[in-house]
Amino acid sequence: MQRRAGRQTVTGIVVNDRTNAARVDYDRLRAILHNAARTGAAAQNRGGHHDFHAHLLGRIAWVEALNPGRGRRLRTDFERIDWT
To answer: What is the Cα–Cα distance from 22 to 30, expressed in whole angstroms?
Structure first.
């Protein structure tokens, strides 16, 4: 049983008043996007993803499905990355 005042999560999704990504997941993704724009995407691909571009787009789409406003902010940050 989860109380009203606490964060209510189901399968990693916060479901209190509306669906949302956990704050730590959102902040981590935003930091990756910020650092990729500053230092380059290759420096942020610490997981060794074959297609890091698609990986980030997938994570952004997941956040957009839960909270479109937050997703738009992440997509704006993503568009600042130089992929050349």
So the answer is: 12
User: Which pTM does this prediction carry?
Assistant: 0.84
| Residue 33 in domain | yes
Q: Is residue 71 part of a domain?
A: yes
Kindly state whether residue 2 falls inside one of the protein's structural domains.
no
Give me the sheet containing 9-10, strands edge to edge.
9-10, 13-14, 20-21
84 is a domain residue: no
Q: Give me 46's structure tokens.
A: 């610490």
Mean pLDDT, the chain cut into blocks of 10 residues (84 residues total): 69 73 92 96 94 97 94 97 90
